[in-house]
Amino acid sequence: QVQLVESGGGLVQPGGSLRLSCAASGIDFRAYAMGWYRQAPGKQRELVAAITSGGSTNYADSVKGRFTISRDNAKKMAYLQMNSLKPEDTAVYYCNARLVNYQESWGQGTQVTVSS
Question: For residue 68, what pLDDT band results from cuts at 50, 70 and 90?
Fold first, then answer.
């Protein structure tokens, strides 16, 4: 069975930083592309960042230059480094793992709140 567990969310002031972690188990990690999504109250869930098994990345325009996605295949971990955080980044952040045939799994989500 595939399991994804996020950690690292919390409360941070505008301009601050957080690093989210996603631990994967029960999968051939190297076969999956990994992604981070977020959902704010009253809004649709949106893709924040994604990384392929080979390390290619893409980002939402709203976070480009501020967020960095990475992965450690040996540890079966994915990360999202978030810098220069803004109040509009406040959301529940979800880890996603996806195969080339689009079979996918989701984590439980972790809350990120950016407020002064």
Answer: very high
